[in-house]
Write a structure and sequence with these properties.
Length: 461
């Protein structure tokens, strides 16, 4: 009997195992399916915490609705009735000691019309005139593998990028814009430049794509994002699920692989899915050449701090759903989401719940990562007082430290992943890479990649 071991019970591993389990049942296959997860609970970076009437997403908080609609995992798992959408609202940038609205009709801070550029309060008149060169500057030097930062600066000028686009975009993609490629961030901007000669004109011509959602850009579930994890788990009836069980070593044998587990047992497997972060994967196989292939992959860090209050969330600026910090010398946090405003289901009473993000790209992060929970909370309270004028004592809080847990997709990313895949294919057939370290960090990307990985194993068997 063949054995498939999935290492890692995050959404990627669960999606892979769901497809394998379905295939096993539908085709009466005599295979052994095992999922090993080092933590006590499944879900990885999807973790919902319930505290004093508040629903707190310690990791991911939502799924891009457009991507979820294009796939059918919500219907397949029977979760349609539980879906909730974000409340539409405006975002601010905190700069020069005040909150300034990100102009309407912009996408990740990029003006989607000339009017949007004209009305920006974040950029000077000179900066706006410079940005108009988008209309008359041809692309004769960039490919999709070039840096998105250089690309935007070339066509919009430095000021618009620095003051309006970079604070938003580098927050969304967790990295410095000069280190991220066009292909891994916003490839359609390149296509707009090619097709319409201008990025702004491209947005104007494609307005329907951006406006059709009516502001419902993200979705979650009314009882929390871990509904997705529970739904997968409930459907794994033909799978042995080993929680609190870490895979510690993989060795090649004559007929497959021997995997040592932290519970002292070992397991023989024909196929292994590495649905774990790249540094955890590299540590499993004692092969220096393979480890060297993993070396260029890097992670960044993030600390998430939630503060919940006994005050109504109507205290906050009307219509807003949060802010991003433009200048690192003004606040210690990179961004703040007004969670109870954006996601009504997160606060039973309608009282205020906010989430502050502290990223390793911030100069203050080196000292933050040495701090205990109490000091971190003090930092968060100071940021809230300065930015929103809130001085009340919080009723509840939740601090989550995601140190070295956020994959960074550097310009060399595609080549690095291809090199690891190729070495695994040659030296370790049957071992498959999967998940956020390699094939996209968004939850839909992880689900799709998990399913595709299962498909390859099924084809192989
Ligand atoms: C703070 C934060 C906010 C985010 N926000 C969003 C968002 O709003 N929307 C979105 O789409 N995405 C978001 N993401 C990204 C998304 O959550 C992740 O990319 C995705 O959940 C990763 O899933 P995964 O299964 O690939 O990896 P993981 O979730 O990292 O799962 C890997 C699992 O493997 C386990 N493991 C590790 N080593 C071993 C071992 N040796 N043996 C056994 N088990 C092991 C870990 O415990 C973990 O459970 C966010 C991520 C973070 C950290």
């Amino acid at each position: 009997m063949k054995t498939v071991l999935v290492i890692g019970g995050g959404v990627t591993g669960l999606s892979a195992m769901y497809e394998l389990n379905k295939w096993k049942k539908e085709n009466n296959q005599d295979i052994r399916l095992v999922l090993a997860e080092s933590a006590e609970q499944l879900g990885g970076k999807i973790r919902t915490v319930r505290k004093g009437g508040f629903l707190i997403e310690a990791g991911a908080d939502s799924i891009v609705a457009r991507k979820a609609d294009a796939m059918n995992f919500i219907q397949e798992l029977g979760l349609e009735e539980e879906v909730v959408y974000n409340a539409a609202g405006r975002s601010y940038i905190y700069t020069d000691g005040e909150l300034k609205l990100i102009p309407a009709d912009s996408v990740f801070g990029i003006p989607a019309s000339v009017e949007s550029l004209a009305k920006s309060t974040l950029v000077s008149a000179e900066g706006k005139v410079e940005a108009l060169k988008d209309f008359y500057t041809k692309n004769d030097r960039f490919t999709k593998n070039d840096s998105i930062g250089d690309f935007l600066e070339h066509f919009f000028g430095k000021e618009l990028v620095e003051k309006q686009i970079a604070p938003v975009l580098s927050g969304v993609y967790s990295g410095n814009l000069s280190d991220l490629t066009i292909a891994s961030t916003l490839p359609h901007l390149f296509d707009y430049k090619e097709k319409y000669g201008s990025i702004i004109r491209g947005f104007e011509e494609n307005k329907k794509v951006f406006q059709s959602s009516g502001g419902k850009k993200f979705l979650s579930f009314n009882k929390g994002l871990d509904t997705l994890i529970d739904a997968y788990e409930e459907r794994l009836d033909g799978t042995e699920i080993l929680k609190s069980t870490q895979a510690v070593k993989i060795e090649k044998t004559d007929c497959g692989y021997k995997v040592d587990l932290s519970n002292g047992e070992s397991l023989e497997a024909d196929h292994i899915v590495l649905g774990i972060p790249h540094n955890a994967a590299a540590a499993l196989i004692d092969d220096q050449e393979l480890k060297a292939e993993f070396e260029p992959l890097k992670n960044s860090s993030l600390i998430s701090i939630y503060l919940a209050y006994d005050i109504p969330d109507s205290e906050l600026p009307e219509d807003g759903t949060g802010f991003i910090t433009a200048n690192t010398d003004e606040l210690t946090c990179n961004a703040c989401t007004w969670t109870s405003r954006k996601w009504k289901h997160t606060s039973e009473s309608g009282n205020l719940l906010v989430r502050l993000f502290y990223k390793s790209s911030h100069p203050a992060f080196a000292s933050l990562k040495e701090m205990g929970e109490e000091e971190l909370l003090k930092t968060a309270l100071a940021d809230l007082e300065k930015s929103l004028g809130i001085t009340a004592e919080p009723a509840a809080s939740e601090v989550t430290n995601w140190t070295e847990k956020m994959p960074n997709y550097l310009i060399s990313h595609p080549e690095t992943v291809a090199a690891i895949e190729s070495r695994l294919g040659r030296e370790y057939p049957g071992i498959w890479l999967a998940g956020c370290s390699y094939y996209g960090v968004g939850i839909p990307d992880c689900i799709e990649n998990g399913a595709e990985t299962a498909g390859k194993i099924i084809e192989d068997m």
